[in-house]
Amino acid sequence: MQTGIYINCSIYLQKICESGEIGGQMTMKKIILLGITIILIASVLMSCESIPWNSPVKEDANSANKKSNYDNAQAPLNPTTENVLKEQVIVTLYFGYTGDSYLASDMRTVKIPVTKRIEQVIVEELLKGPVSDKLELETLFNPNVRVIMVSDNNDYIFVTLSKEFLINPDPKKISQNDFNISKKLAIYSIVNSLTELGRFSRVQILIDAENNEQGARIKRKDAGFIGDSNQEQLLEPLARDAKLILSPENTVRAMMKAFIEKDWDKVYGYLATKDNNQVLKPEPDEFRNTLVSVAPTLDSSEILDGTISNDGQTAVVTTNYKIKMKNSKSVEYILAPLRLIRERQMWKIVFPAISSIFEKK
Q: Which residue has the higher pLDDT, 157 or 98?
């Protein structure tokens, strides 16, 4: 390109000299000035052409812009992470409470890789099950269940699970009725854990029944919703269900149900090891033998309300109940406060709150 410009300028100057205009109309001084002018113009033109459109300089600039856009696209959703790859978040997970149809909460610190969204990590943590020291908690899923996909649309979130969710992992030990209860609780463990984030109002559970990485809705009966008039319909997006969470009121409700059934071991499980005054509950055998000897019968019970302390560690549930001991009349308790404390992140009734039932009437 540079050589071509020089050649064109030389040819143009030569034609001017041959045209005869030089001898007649132009002095030698003017010719020299004209030649210098032409050379300067050629130099300017060459400088403009010195950076072609496909030059490395322009490509580097474009590459920098592209890299910046790529980095922005790949950047973590939350830039305040522990390091480039992940962040740590405290989440509340809901697991099954052993021997009952309730969900108990467990707060856990989880690591969120930038390649996953927090909702997927939460579901994966639920599939792993509770930590070993939470003896009252149990996993609700077939151990072979996998998370296929998690997506959202406005305030609805969609969770696709593998087909193992529909398979009873041990038919010899788990009856079909118990498996249905477990599936329903498992679904609500996902629903309540995800809605705990406050981002979504409904959770739609889908199952990859065809093994093609695509989720589809299942019938309510296949999800464990047995016995209602809608069991043949497809499972709809589900909202949070607080009635299944082992709150202070539900803890008292579950204890009273076990009391009516005279399941003393289960009643014992709802009692705190000790209260804030370090008052211990009796040993299991002592507790059971005492109840067997006094043979209490819970004639009626009613839960009125419950309040939780500002620090979230204690609660009081107000109840009415009528209880009858062996060889005695019924005793009615009106507006009786039952005190509870948080023990290993679960609500437990302090033993002094119910110790009066051991008083022989």
A: 157
